[in-house]
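To the wet lab folks,

You asked to see what we're planning to order before we commit. Fair enough. Below is the target structure as C-alpha cells, and below that is the sequence we designed to fit it. If anything looks off to you, flag it before the synthesis order goes out.
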C-alpha cells in the first residue's frame, strides 16, 4: 500500500504503511519504469498539496466505501461482516488515479476560473468519479437523499452497483458525465466533440491504457488535427498508465519510455510525464504537469485569437504513470494487488466471510484517516470543501455535461426551396440526397455555431456537396497549392471528414451531448463499423429518459445511410450489406427511428421531422444515385406523417361505391425496391387487368410494428385496413427480409406476408441483375403474385413464363453489354397519377 505518512492508531493495515515503489520493473525493462530522472516539482505550496492530498484521500475513502459498505460509513464502530455488501461489484483499480486527476483539476479550475469537464475513458472506474462529484456537492444537489452527512453517505455507498440503484460505470445518472465509458475507446473523440465550438472549454479526458489499445482510441489521437484554437476549446488528454487491464499488462505501459514519448509526439501531442507512486512527490509532479499544460493551452489559445491565425499547435497531454489500485492493499496472501492487474476490480474479494480480509479492509479504509476528513455529521471538512470550485464550475455540475440545458432549438430552412418538381409520379429522375445537401447547406447559416456534419470522406460522394457552397471541411494540417482546386478544405470548416467512422461518431456524440446538433453520413455496408457506438448511444438515451430525468433532452443522433446495397455497381459484394437497420430493431422504440424514403422529397420531409426530434437515434436510408421521383413535397410530408402510404395512383383496387377488396397487396420500402414494385405493378395491370392490386409504401419502418413497441407503430385497425387480414402481401424490402417478419409477426395477416429483400446474392452486377439475384426485381415480383394469389396459378401460366424468359434475357443482356438494357434503365411509370 503506497500510502500516506501517518496511520490510524491500531490499524491492522499499519504494518504496511509507508511502503512505496511497489512497482518493480522486470529486469529486461529497466529503461521503461521508473525513470531515473527526479519528478518535476510544482510552484504549489506544500500546504496546498497536503490539502489536495487530504481531498484525494477522502475521494479514495469514498470509493472503497461504495464498493464494500452498506453500513457504518464513517467507521465509527469496528467493521463487522454485516456492514459489508453481500455482492461486491465495482472497479477499484482505476479509481484512485482518476480521483487524483480530478483533485488536481479542481485546483486549476478554482485558480484560473476554467470551464472544464471531465470524461472518464475507463468509466468502469466510476468510484473515482462519483466520489469527487459527491465531495463537490453536485451529487447531493441532484440526489438530495444522498446528502453530505452520515445518513447520506450511507445511502451513497449502498446504492453503488446495487440492484435497483446505479451501475458501476459513469452511467447517465452520474452528474458531470457525458461519457459512460462502459465500452472502451471513445473518450478522446467524445471530448473533441464537446470542445468543438466551445471556445473556452477544456475537456479533460482520462484515457485508460487498456482503452488506448482499442482501434477507436488509437486513431482518435488525431483529434488535434480538427480543433481550431480560435473558435474551439481544447482537449487535455491524460493517459492513465496504471499498467494493467483486467488480467494483462498494457502495451503502452511496457514499451520503452522513448517509444511512448515518440508515439505521442508523432501524433502531434506534447507529452508531460508524471510517474511514480509516492503520493507527496506525485502531487508535486501532477501540479507541475497540470500547471504546465494549462499554461500551454491558454497561451496557444491567446496567441491564435490575438493573431487570428489558426495553426495546429502541439497541444499538451499528460502521461500519468501510477500503480493500478494505488493506495490499496499491497497483497492478499502471496498475491500481489496494488500495482498489478489483480487490483482491477474488488481487491479483497470476501471480507464478509473472511475475518483477516475484514481487518485488512478496515485498515485500508483507515489508512485514509477519515476522522481528519469528515466532521461529526459526516460532512467533508470546510477546508476541504473549499478545494472544490463553485457552482457550475464544479466538474460535477458543469452545464456542458447536461448539454440539453444549453441547447437552442434547431432552425431549419424551408424545405420547399429544395423540393424536386414531380409533374407526375415515376416519370422524372433526381439524385435523392442532393436536395438534402442543400437543406444542410442553408441550415449552417441558421445554426452557425451549433451544427456540424460528419462523414468519413464521402460528403461529395454521397451527393451532399451543396454543403460546400456554404462551408468547407475542417483541416488544421498543411495545405498544398493544389488543395485550392476542389479539395474544399478550410481551417473553419463545419464538415468533419476523417477516415475513421468511430472518431467521427464519437465527435458527433460529444457535440450532441453538449447541446448541439450533428449529422453523420456513411456508406451503408460500413455503418456496421459504428454499430456498437449506436448501441451505446441508444442505451445512454434510454437511461436518461428513465433514470436521469434531470438531464435535458439532447439533439437527435442522425445517421444517413447512403451508397446502399442496391447500387454497388462497381464495388460489389463487400459493399452490399443492409443489416444496420436490423440492429435498430433490437433497441427500444422510444429512442430509435428508421426511415426509408423512396425519393428526394420524401427524404426532405424525413429530414424535417427527424432532425427536430430530441433524445432519439435516426437512421435514414437513402441512396445517392439518380432515382425515379414519386411524390411532391406536400405529398411526401403527408406520407411521412402517416408512416405508411397507400399509393392510390399506383393501385387499381379503389372500387368507388363497391367495397375496396384487393386481390394482392404490393408493399415496398426503400428506393430501388419501390421502383421494382411499381414496375411489377405496371406489368400486372397490363398483363392481368382483372387483378386488383393495392400498393403500399412504407417510409417509417417501425410503422409496421405494434404501437406498444414503437411510437411510429400503426394501430391494428389501421394496419389491417391497409394490409387486409387475408390477402397475400408481397413485400419488397430494402434490407434483409427477416426484419419485416420480425416487425409484423403479431399482425393478423402476417401468415400471408411474403417478403423479398437482400439475400447475400451479389457481386459486380448491373442494378437489375442484382435485383434479380435477390428476387426483388419486377419479374420475380410478378411471379410471386402469380404464385401467391390463389385464383391465378395456371390461369397466369403464360405471364409467368414470359417473366421467367425476361429474367434470362435481361441477365444475358447485362453479361453481353455490361449494363442493363435501355428498356430497364429508362423505365418510367406510364399509368399516370390515378
Ligand atoms: C471495447 C471494450 N472491450 C472490452 C471491455 C472489457 N473491459 C472492461 S475494463 C477492461 C480493461 C481496461 O483497462 P484500462 O483501460 O487500462 O482501464 P483501467 O486499468 O483504468 O481500469 C476491459 C478489457 C470493454 N469494456 N470495452
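Sequence we intend to order:
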Amino acid at each position: 500500500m503506497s500510502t500516506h505518512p501517518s496511520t490510524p492508531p491500531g490499524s491492522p493495515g499499519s504494518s504496511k504503511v509507508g511502503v512505496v515503489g511497489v512497482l518493480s520493473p522486470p529486469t529486461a525493462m529497466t529503461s521503461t519504469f521508473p525513470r531515473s530522472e527526479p519528478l518535476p516539482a510544482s510552484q504549489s505550496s506544500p500546504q496546498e498539496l497536503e490539502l489536495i492530498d487530504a481531498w484525494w484521500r477522502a475521494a479514495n475513502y469514498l470509493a472503497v466505501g461504495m464498493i464494500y459498505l452498506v453500513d457504518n460509513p464513517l467507521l465509527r464502530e469496528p467493521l463487522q461482516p454485516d456492514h459489508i455488501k453481500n455482492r461486491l461489484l465495482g472497479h477499484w483499480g482505476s479509481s484512485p488515479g482518476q480521483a487524483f486527476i480530478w483533485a488536481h483539476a479542481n485546483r486549476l479550475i478554482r485558480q484560473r476560473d476554467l470551464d472544464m469537464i471531465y470524461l472518464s475513458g475507463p468509466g468502469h472506474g466510476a468510484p473515482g468519479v462519483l466520489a469527487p462529484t459527491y465531495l463537490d456537492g453536485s451529487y447531493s444537489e441532484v440526489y438530495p437523499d444522498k446528502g453530505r452527512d452520515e445518513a447520506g453517505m450511507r445511502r451513497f455507498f449502498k446504492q453503488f452497483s446495487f440492484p435497483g440503484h446505479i451501475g458501476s460505470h459513469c452511467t447517465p445518472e452520474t452528474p458531470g458525465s457525458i461519457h459512460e465509458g462502459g465500452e472502451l475507446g471513445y473518450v478522446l473523440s467524445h471530448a473533441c466533440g464537446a470542445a468543438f465550438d466551445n471556445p473556452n472549454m477544456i475537456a479533460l479526458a482520462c484515457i485508460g491504457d487498456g482503452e488506448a489499445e482499442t482501434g477507436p482510441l488509437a486513431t482518435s489521437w488525431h483529434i488535434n488535427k480538427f480543433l481550431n484554437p480560435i473558435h474551439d476549446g481544447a482537449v487535455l488528454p491524460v493517459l492513465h498508465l496504471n499498467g494493467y487491464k483486467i488480467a494483462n499488462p498494457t502495451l503502452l505501459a511496457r514499451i520503452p519510455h522513448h517509444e511512448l514519448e515518440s508515439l505521442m509526439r508523432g501524433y502531434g501531442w506534447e507529452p508531460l510525464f508524471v510517474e511514480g507512486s509516492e503520493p507527496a512527490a506525485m502531487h508535486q509532479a501532477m501540479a507541475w504537469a497540470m500547471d504546465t499544460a494549462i499554461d500551454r493551452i491558454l497561451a496557444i489559445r491567446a496567441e491564435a485569437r490575438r493573431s487570428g491565425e489558426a495553426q495546429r499547435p502541439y497541444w499538451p497531454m499528460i502521461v500519468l504513470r501510477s500503480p493500478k489500485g494505488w493506495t490499496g492493499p499491497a497483497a492478499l496472501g502471496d498475491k500481489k494487488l496494488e500495482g498489478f492487474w489483480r487490483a482491477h476490480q474488488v481487491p479483497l474479494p470476501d471480507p464478509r466471510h473472511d475475518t483477516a480480509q475484514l481487518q485488512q479492509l478496515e485498515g485500508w479504509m483507515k489508512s485514509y484517516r477519515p476522522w481528519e476528513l469528515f466532521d461529526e455529521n459526516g460532512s467533508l471538512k470546510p477546508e476541504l470543501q473549499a478545494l472544490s470550485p463553485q457552482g457550475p464550475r464544479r466538474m460535477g455540475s458543469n452545464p456542458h455535461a447536461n448539454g440539453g440545458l444549453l441547447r437552442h432549438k434547431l432552425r431549419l430552412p424551408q424545405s420547399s426551396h429544395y423540393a424536386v418538381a414531380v409533374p407526375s409520379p415515376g416519370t422524372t429522375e433526381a439524385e435523392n440526397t442532393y436536395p438534402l445537401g442543400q437543406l444542410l447547406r442553408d441550415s449552417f447559416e441558421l445554426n452557425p455555431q451549433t451544427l456540424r456534419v460528419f462523414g468519413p470522406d464521402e460528403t461529395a460522394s454521397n451527393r451532399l456537396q451543396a454543403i460546400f457552397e456554404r462551408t468547407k471541411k475542417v483541416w488544421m494540417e498543411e495545405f498544398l497549392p493544389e488543395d485550392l482546386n476542389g479539395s474544399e478544405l478550410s481551417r473553419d470548416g463545419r464538415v468533419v471528414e476523417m477516415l475513421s467512422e468511430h472518431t467521427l461518431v464519437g465527435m458527433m456524440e460529444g457535440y450532441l451531448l453538449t447541446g448541439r446538433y450533428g449529422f453523420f453520413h456513411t456508406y451503408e455496408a460500413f455503418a456496421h463499423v459504428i454499430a456498437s457506438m449506436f448501441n451505446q448511444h441508444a442505451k445512454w438515451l434510454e437511461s436518461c429518459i428513465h433514470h436521469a430525468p434531470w438531464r435535458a433532452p439532447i439533439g437527435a443522433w442522425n445517421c444517413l445511410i447512403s451508397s446502399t446495397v442496391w447500387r454497388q455497381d462497381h464495388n460489389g459484394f463487400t459493399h452490399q450489406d443492409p443489416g444496420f437497420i436490423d440492429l435498430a430493431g433490437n433497441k427500444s422504440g422510444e429512442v430509435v427511428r428508421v426511415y426509408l424514403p423512396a425519393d428526394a422529397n420524401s427524404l426532405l420531409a424525413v429530414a424535417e421531422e427527424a432532425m427536430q426530434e430530441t433524445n432519439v437515434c435516426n437512421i435514414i436510408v437513402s441512396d445517392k444515385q439518380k432515382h425515379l421521383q414519386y411524390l411532391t413535397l406536400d405529398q411526401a410530408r403527408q406520407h411521412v406523417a402517416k408512416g405508411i402510404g397507400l399509393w392510390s395512383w399506383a393501385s387499381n383496387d379503389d372500387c368507388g361505391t363497391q367495397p375496396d377488396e384487393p386481390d394482392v397487396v404490393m408493399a415496398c420500402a426503400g428506393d430501388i425496391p419501390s421502383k421494382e414494385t411499381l414496375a411489377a405493378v405496371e406489368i400486372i395491370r397490363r398483363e392481368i387487368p382483372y387483378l386488383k392490386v393495392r400498393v403500399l409504401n412504407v417510409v417509417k419502418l417501425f410503422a409496421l410494428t405494434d404501437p406498444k413497441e414503437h411510437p411510429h407503430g400503426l394501430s391494428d385497425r389501421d394496419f389491417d385496413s391497409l394490409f387486409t387480414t387475408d390477402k397475400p402481401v408481397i413485400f419488397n424490402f430494402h434490407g434483409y427480409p427477416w426484419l419485416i417478419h420480425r416487425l409484423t409477426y403479431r399482425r393478423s395477416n402476417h401468415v400471408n406476408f411474403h417478403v423479398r429483400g437482400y439475400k447475400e446474392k451479389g457481386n459486380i452486377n448491373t442494378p437489375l441483375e442484382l435485383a434479380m439475384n435477390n428476387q426483388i426485381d419486377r419479374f420475380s415480383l410478378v411471379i410471386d403474385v402469380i404464385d401467391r394469389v390463389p385464383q391465378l396459378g395456371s390461369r397466369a401460366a403464360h405471364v409467368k413464363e414470359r417473366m421467367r424468359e425476361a429474367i434470362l434475357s435481361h441477365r444475358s443482356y447485362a453479361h453481353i453489354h455490361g449494363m442493363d438494357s435501355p428498356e430497364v434503365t429508362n423505365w418510367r411509370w406510364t399509368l399516370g397519377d390515378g
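Structural context that might help your review: The two ends are 82 Å apart (CA to CA). The chain has 26 helices and 22 strands.

Thanks,
Computational group
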